[in-house]
Amino acid sequence: MLDKPLKPFSLLIKPVGSRCNLNCDYCFYLGTDESLGGPRPAVMPVEVLERLCEDFLGYGFPTSVFTWQGGEPTLAGLDFYRKAVETQMRFGRGGQAVANALQTNALLIDHEWADFLARYRFLVGVSLDGPPELHDSHRKDRRGKPTFDRVMQGIAHLREAGVEFNILCMITSLSQSRGRGIYRFLVAGGFTHLQFIPCAEYDPATGAPSPLNVSPAGYGRFMCDIFDEWYNAGDTHRISVRTFDAIVGRLAGAPQLSLCNFGDRCDHYLVVEKDGGVYPCDFFVEKKYALGNLMQSSLAGLFQSDRERSFSRLKCSYPDLCLRCPHLDLCFGGCPKDRLSAGGGRFGKPSYLCEGLKIFFEHTRGKFQELADSVNQSAIPGAAPAKGRSAAVSGAASGRNAPCPCGSGKKYKHCCLRK
């Protein structure tokens, strides 16, 4: 029996754990399997998959979101995902909305994979760090070979099949001064949904930042450069940058649809490892943060457990500098892992990226507020669209694949986005 109404949450599922066919220089997840210890399967067993689907779909959320990630989740094999979809259909209720997302390096994507992903409407995230010289500098395969051309071939298969996909681009010390060029490269390549992720990793023994990390100020300048290209080129109507969407959404009054690192609490999703182990966050898949195992406990029970609540509240332990910051209402201190590492294992210091976030917000906040105001104006019945309003901007408050705020039960892109 749950002790309070259940807030909807999503699942981030690791069907092969940290196993991957790449050996990216900056990967924080390699070796996670070994650190968790004990006998662990190569791929999530059928009984764990069935338990996961039966339990999660039983809550009847407006949209039940399954995000498949790794390591490299395609290593589970296409038959695993056929089984996953069949299991979702078996345990889902009539008319229940189910969304699947897959984060991949795209090396294994061929015609068969792409046709499957298109048929079942998976939203795919593809990791691409920009032009070949940047991408191949860090994203090599297990033999040390470059991967850019193979990634582009996988993307070609996705496009041919009509799969919806986003591009995820890592910002490193090598790329931090090339924001404008990276943005132009991606847009020229026809990519319209982008996410830029700061490389912010640390030596687990000393807490020292990795030499591959984007510098705090470099991160701020990079995001300012991306924003200027996006805004000044008039791309607000056609290019979705996830961080920008999240900020416009929060300023427009839809904070529940923000990125988790810009949320006020860490209670958006649960991580499910291949053995059924459940953790509160992708960056905290460690024994000391384990919530339990779905084979012995319900997902709802783990989500509402004291351990999860304690973890969620950690983000609210702001240092004094955050409490005095005019941008706390946007970043809420940033991702806790960046505060934990910067604080030497404690939450007493601001995020490693704090300086960069301030640079970015001070440069862009006024224009973001104008975009948010246009979203709110367009939501007023009978109001004329604000000049320059676009699908990308007006959809920012909810996200194109999120449930429509009007309550219709449809995705935003199939409902009010078209009005």
Automatic annotation (TrEMBL):
The Radical SAM core domain, residue ranges? 3-232
Top-rank taxon of the source lineage equals Bacteria
What are the protein's UniProt keywords?
Answer: Iron, Iron-sulfur, Metal-binding, S-adenosyl-L-methionine
- SUPFAM superfamilies according to UniProt: Radical SAM enzymes, Sec-C motif
**One Gene Ontology MF term:** metal ion binding
Pfam families linked to this entry = Radical_SAM, SEC-C, SPASM
Q: Which cofactor does it need?
A: [4Fe-4S] cluster
State the similarity comment: Belongs to the radical SAM superfamily. Anaerobic sulfatase-maturating enzyme family.
Q: What is this protein called?
A: Anaerobic sulfatase maturase
